[in-house]
Specification:
single chain; disordered N terminus; 87% helix; mainly alpha; 389 residues; globular
């Protein structure tokens, strides 16, 4: 009897535990009838009104973000130009640092020299450019009259008949109309406003580039910390090569543009053509555009020279065309090959894509970006492919 009690007790305990483990019908129905919040949310999405509300809300948010980004385009352009200016001046700062100068003093010296050069250019060229622009509008009727008495005009009349005199007459009628003169004055005023905003933008870019140049090592270190520890060494090597190539490329573009401006100034001066200082400034600004800058200025400079003197314009076109060949085959390889190495076909394609997408800024950054992509492919992608069996 004593041995049978534990068996009956253990069976009773197992029965009680199994009974307590089984849910009651009431608790099961309550659990099934009570929906969870996540199920309720996804169930509501089946309703057309809720779906339309969320789609409309998402579209409005996307539209607001697009408007915000588009309104900040100018700021992003300033930041991009400032960063490229800092990368262009950084090689000079590092060269001074290699001679024992601290980075703060090296930056001060570089910007002081840059400010002196900029003030000198503004002091010497801007008054001359303004006076020459005014002189251009004053002398334009006389230039048209001299053009009508030239042999080139006679040849045009012979080739095209009455169309050449009609065009000249329309131009004279336009210039003699006071309303058109007022419209030109308004255009000049708007150009003045544009020049003022451009100057303020240049000042902003200079200040931002100063901050970027001063904190460039810290920016690089912060960028390296974003990558895993095993990739930081490779990232640092690639970043140093890319930034040095960008700085060398921008410095080379400035040197080539300076040579173009000198050639344009002395050609206009020696050929006794009008507006040499103005054309030198135009040459420097336009030839900063990769690939097509020299061709564009050649066309503009030739047209202006032909209006003033057909013989002088012809000489200018020939001499500047010869200089373009010297620049393409002698100066550009010596200046650019030390800084950046990109195949010619990729240079053309990159400049076209960058100019189409982002205008002047895209054309300027297209070649360094192309070189950076090629460098990443060479240093990262190809070694990974070679390591695979």
């Amino acid at each position: 009897m004593s041995e049978s009690r534990p068996e009956n007790g253990s069976s009773d305990v197992r029965a009680a535990s199994s009974a307590s483990a089984e849910p009651t019908p009431d608790s099961t129905s309550v659990a099934l009838e009570t929906p969870t919040p996540s199920r309720t949310f996804w169930a509501n999405l089946n309703h057309p009104f809720v779906v339309g509300f969320f789609l409309t809300l998402g579209g409005l948010v996307a539209f607001a973000l697009g408007m915000a980004i588009s309104s900040l385009v100018t700021i992003w352009i300033y930041v991009a130009f400032a960063m490229f200016a800092a990368l262009g001046l950084n090689p000079l700062v590092e060269r001074l640092q290699s001679r024992g100068m601290k980075r703060a003093w090296a930056i001060t010296v570089v910007y002081f020299v840059f400010a002196v050069i900029l003030i000198g250019i503004v002091w010497l060229i801007v008054p001359t450019v303004i006076s020459q622009i005014a002189q251009f509008f004053r002398d334009l009727p006389n230039m048209i009259g001299d053009f009508q008495r030239s042999d080139l005009y006679a040849w045009l009349v012979t080739q095209f008949g009455d169309q050449a005199p009609e065009l000249v007459a329309e131009l004279q009628k336009f210039l003699s109309d006071p309303g058109n003169i007022a419209a030109i004055g308004g255009g000049v005023l708007s150009i003045g406003v544009t020049i003022g905003s451009t100057i303020s933008g240049v000042i902003i870019i200079i200040v931002l580039s100063l901050y970027f140049l001063a904190s460039l090592p810290e920016i690089k270190q912060a960028f390296y910390r974003l990558w895993p520890a095993r990739l930081r060494k490779t990232t640092a090597e690639l970043t140093e090569q890319i930034t040095s190539s960008v700085g060398g490329y921008l410095g080379g573009m400035v040197v080539l543009a300076f040579f173009n401006s000198l050639v344009a100034f002395f050609l206009y001066l020696f050929l006794n053509l009008p507006f040499p200082a103005l054309m030198a400034v135009v040459a420097f600004a336009i030839t900063l555009i990769p690939l097509v800058g020299s061709v564009l200025f050649w066309a503009i400079g030739t047209v202006v020279a032909l209006i003033a003197s057909p013989l002088g314009g012809l000489i200018f076109a020939i001499v500047y065309l010869v200089y373009m060949q010297i620049e393409a085959y002698v100066l550009t390889p010596k200046v650019m090959n030390k800084a950046i190495s990109v195949p010619g076909a990729l240079v053309v394609i990159g400049a076209l894509v960058g100019g189409t997408l982002m205008g002047l800024l895209g054309a300027l950054v297209a070649i360094p970006v192309t070189a950076s992509i090629l460098l990443i492919i060479k240093k990262v992608y190809i070694p990974k492919q070679d390591a695979q069996v």
